[in-house]
Amino acid sequence: MSRNRPGIGQYVLLTLLAIVFLYPIWWAVSSSLKPAAEIIASPLSIGELTLDNYRAMFADVPIGTGFLNTALVLLVKGGMTMVFCPLAGYAFAKYDFPFKNVLFGVVLLTLMLPTLVLIIPLLLEMSALGWVNTYQALILPGSVDAFSIFWMRQTIAAIPNELIDAGRVDGAGEFGIFYKVVLPVIRPGLAALAVLTTMNIYNDFVWPVVAVNDTEHQTLQVVLATLAQNVTGNRIGADFATVWGELLAAGSIAMLPLLVIFVLLQRHFINGILAGSVKG
Amino acid sequence: MTTSPIGRRGFLKGALGVGALAATGSLAAACAAPGGTGAQPSKLAAPAASASSAKGEITIWNRSGDLFKVFDAAIAKFREAYPNVKVNHQAVDIDAKLANTLISGTDVPDGSFWDDAKIGGQAEHLFDLTDLIAPYKDRTSAYKLSVNTVDGKIYGVPWDLDPGLLWYREDVLDKAGIDPATLATYDDLLKAARTIKEKDPKTKPIHLEKTPFLSQLWLEMLANQQGTSLTDAQGKLRLDSEEYRRIFAWIQGAVKDDLVTHAPYLEQTDVNTLDNGQQVFVPWAIWWSFAPQQLLKNTKGKWRAAPLPAWTPGGARSGAMGGSSFIIPAKAKNPELAWLLYEFLCFKEPGYTAVYGPNDVYPGGLSTSIPSYTPAADPAKPLFKPIDALGGQDLWKVAVEAGASIPAAAPIPWWWAQSVDYLGNNMQRLMEGKMSPDQVISDSAEKIQKNLIDRS
Amino acid sequence: MRLRSVRLTPYLFIAPFFAVFGAFGLYPLIYALQLSFMRWRGGSQARWVGFDNYLYLLTSPEFWSSLGNSAVMWLLIVPLQIVAGLGGAVLLANAKLRLRGFFRVAFIVPFVTPLVAMAQVWIVVFDQDYGLVNYLLNLVGLPDVAWLTSTAWSKPTLALLFLWKTTGFAIIILLAGLQAVPGGVYEAASLDGASRWRQFWSITVPLVRRSMAFLVVIQTLAVFQMFTEPRVVTEGGPYGSTTTAGLYLYDHINASDLGTGAANSFLLVLLVFGLSLVSVRMLRPKDEVS
Question: What percent of chain C is predicted at pLDDT more than 70?
């Protein structure tokens, strides 16, 4: 099927869906360029355009610091994920060892437990360690995460055992097999992991919001949440119109880097994901 | 490829593993019990230091937004009076952070802004400020004191008062020959609404709130007007009362006569029906004032504020809707200095003038609430200026006079927001004609008692 | 010597996870488990209540209706997302698709947008009186729909938000699964005269089943834990119709009713575990592809 030329019907459907998918982003970006009061009063029409929301946002919130902190967390936490999760996934997919299923159950449990319930105990632990308001608190809890291990396990399980046994016969060490046989074969899965990890870390806010207090350590999503508190929930406040303007400006700016990277690199990302080297 | 995608046995064994872990957990439980380290609430005493000798650094939290900027400017004034106190003013997501930070007890701020509704629930983690507020007590709004008092102790420095007002279209009333001064009771309001509807059948003059949370907050304003609230100071539910029944019956009557616009607060439908003449009366808190100032176009300049009607002839002409205060955590490093700041902002003239008076953010002053400290709320000495979007009306005078009549209430129970699932939703059913006042009371009371109070 | 190392190797490979789990996962987990048997609101008063929190939830109509709401959302989201995601992935992987780059960006970028800001679009576009969607419906002669204000439509409307936000995620996962489908298999199938649909069903689907199983488990989890969407767009209403399991849990935690919140979390874990098990079993093929 993937070798067939798509028909006109498919193009019409895809185009309509693409418009639907892009409209909310178009709305958010175009609204961020409208006078704040207009966003609420006439949200669907565009009249006068202004950069006021951006000016106010840059003056009011530390979005630059937010970017730098997010980049730092992304680098370290993402790096740990990319190094350690494939290893763990490989162990769970291709080794038999005592307690394997019990241990994998623990991995799944950490995946399934809602973050919300862990906030207070984790905060208490961070307090005991003296780590509240530090980069460690942002980076370490939840690093080498279950989601990525689970994904790697699923990806690596698809590799034929013969391939690994062949490596073993060739006399490669256990890590050598992983490095020389497994990793090249799962490049597509790794590419997907890189994309997903980036997005998960980039979008994470539940724990970061409580883990750090001062401006210096705020990630991008913490900056956004701090702005958003005035427009979600109760909406009791005089300034939710102006805050809407700033929130949409900050939101537009926040999605920009990933958007640009994605547009420029989508070919590489997706070809990476599609770079199959497994021959049935 | 003979294994199933994940492996059913893996799952089952995993579940067993979890069970084993749970067993170990209960062993470890003994050394990691929640609670336990409880301390009696500590009382904060007045700092001995004079203005010039007060020295140190404090971290205080605020919500982000315009109010943050206003406080920023007011803090600069504080630094002029207390030059040796450095204030680290931080904008944080208070709702998501403050309770968690208080419970964990680490890196707590020296002071924070907080909704009055949240303070009672975490009083244990806050300084008892009774002695410090004592000198100002007689001159502070009884309502604000009552919501900040738990078991006879005051835990919040009362900041803003948010009196309910009757917002009305001056031009429409004028044409209908209605003198706003005659709207003395809620029955008068219904009568006026009927008159207006007769002249212009397109109108549905009275705003009724469609979001459950805000409609319940609005209900509490109407109840506060009659000197009651959802629970008494001991936490006993008092929904089943004449006062609440009166409110619900009034709503039911207004709905039956098709006199209401049932719309969610300042969303599109609301803004449009406010601006096209469908809505004429909005009984709402003072913070509605920003609608004509920022959102409305056609009817900008045509809205005015009056005191709310009374429920009974001669009754109170206002009730509070929302509001915030300042708290000082029991684990604050420099609680005395935080008190000096809040004392300055709430009780000292340069402080409250800096907050409410004209400033860079609000050139005419902050007009969405009034001070709860009565010397600051003097009808003759306005802090914010008359408002053009209200046809130049002196909102200050109307609001502080209304504010002065607000009766005391009781601390807001910690489960208030959760009770919206019952009471707020049932109010919506009432507004949609699906429930009678008696049903709203009995059903909400039963569920709140069972799910929230009995589980406290 | 060699055998010994093989025996230790897997433990070494999973050690980083368990080191992090031991340091930052175990304590919170035990603590939360213990909390689920207590009544505690963050102060010094903590009471051991046995199974009371669990019993309360299991006999509470609100708890069950939150599960019911999430179950309906699950039915609205997961099957559709699997089918649409797979179709999308196949199309986007097709080298003969023109404007492929544009379509890829269009379907995947919602995944990078900040949810709180984007949720506002739903409030605006699905407004009953002034929304774009009803305007378009009226243009083609259809009546207004109370998208966010009727208990019948509120769940589908929120499900759309979730689908919009996460279909890019599904496509990425399924694309990675597709790589295992070598082109030669299709050509062989075409020569055999197998229809396109049959090719898709008998070749593509079995080969991406691991990715699909992963996707189902992750999205089951995400749907049952979802709370930001309903909190921002509908505040759980109208009449609790969008109070999802995640939002119901959030409400407990947000009110610092930590014991009930913890019990609620563990009940959710059990449920999601069970649901994942069932869906994974259903995805297991009856006969294996060689």
Answer: 90
